[in-house]
Amino acid sequence: MKRTPxxxxxxxxxxxxxxxxxxxxxxxxxxxxxxxxSVAERHGRLLAPGVTRVGLPPGHYIFKxxxxxxxxxxxxxxxxxxxxxxxxxVPPPPAGDDTSLxxxxxxxxxxxxxxxxxxxxxx
Length: 123
Known about the structure:
Blueprint: E1 6-12, E2 16-22, E3 29-34, E4 37-42, E5 50-56, E6 59-65, E7 69-75, E8 78-82, E9 118-122
Parallel strand pairs: 7-9
Antiparallel strand pairs: 1-6, 1-8, 2-5, 2-7, 3-4, 3-6
């Protein structure tokens, strides 16, 4: 069965440290506002499979994975959720102090498959 990518959004409300457990190499992007709208910029190096500790300045981040992922908040304040898999656009960061994350959508042109699992633990 074909696996569909899982798109994860993170919001760091304050300087934070997280541990990401991944089954593949992943690019973590920071979502920033530009005159052209929301743009994803690479945050740090590519994350290797296994457990990686990452420092996050306040802001919004996204990554995509085909394997299961686990996020553990070591310090700080981070919320996370799954974003729509039907859009190829960078999701805009929530306005103001709104930390709500988009709800998954059934839209898209990919054949249905088994999405990876995402779990979140707060220390």
